[in-house]
Amino acid sequence: GLIRRDHPVLADRKVLYRGDAVALVVAETQRVLADACAAVKVDYKPLPVVATIDEALAPEAPRLHPDGNIMGGKRIRKGDADAALAASEVVVEDTFETQTVDHAFLDLEAGVARWDGATLTIHAPGQWVHEERRLVALALGLPLETVRIVQPVTGGAFGGREDISVQIHLGLAALKHPNKTVAMQSSREESMRARHKRHALRIRYTLGARRDGTLTAAKVVVYSDEGAYASTGPAVIRKAASHATGPYRVPNVHVDVYGVHTNNNPTGAMRGFGAAQMAIAYEGMMDRLAAR
User: Fold this and answer.
1) Minimal CA–CA distance to 232: which of 281, 192, 272, 204?
2) What span, in angstroms and rounded, lies between the C-alpha atoms of 264 and 100?
3) pTM for this entry
4) pLDDT for the residue numbered 189
């Protein structure tokens, strides 16, 4: 996990979404690899699925993490939004829902790794090699100085490579097979199943103004589908909160943003990083306010 260490390299007690890895298989040819993967049998006990924000917030909802289904929240308080809305000459209110989005970069997750007994060298495309190095070392229990990350040309990212993809699994396989070069590549189906997505947000927005168009107050409540694990979610919801009113001068602001865990893909960094979804809401509200 980039911000919270909440995502197991290999799930051993519970899987929280379809992309959770449960086993690592190494073979010398693709044909043997396919047969070996098919031979792996996993006994699953079906658990209730938490597929939506509403299901996650329900009082009887299964707890996906020990602390519950609320990952965290961000607050902004500026002035007195409730009093300013009550005194406003025009008030508009609406709810916006954005969807998850896949980055769909052309170059899929792939890499090679080798452990020579002293240094673990991993070649894999990412977005910040120093952070990948730190996370690989933490996950595999290695001293930082024994891990070397080489970043080849990255065929697209858009935030989709900020989180770890194949690096730790490559490193784990290499450690088990010293002095062997280990390669790994995701198919498009595997990539879409496992990788994080853009956050889906539900944004309840109330905006007030005087009849001359001067904005008076904004009250915004946002629920963010974080999926199974935190990824960059804590930073994304902070950005969503700070961008809640966009470039507009609003003297009274009341913002609550909640991150909510579900059994969906983890959601993390993607172009705009929480700000893009909020732009749909505050620009939509400006249109509604102008019409009113």
Assistant:
1) 272
2) 10
3) 0.93
4) 94
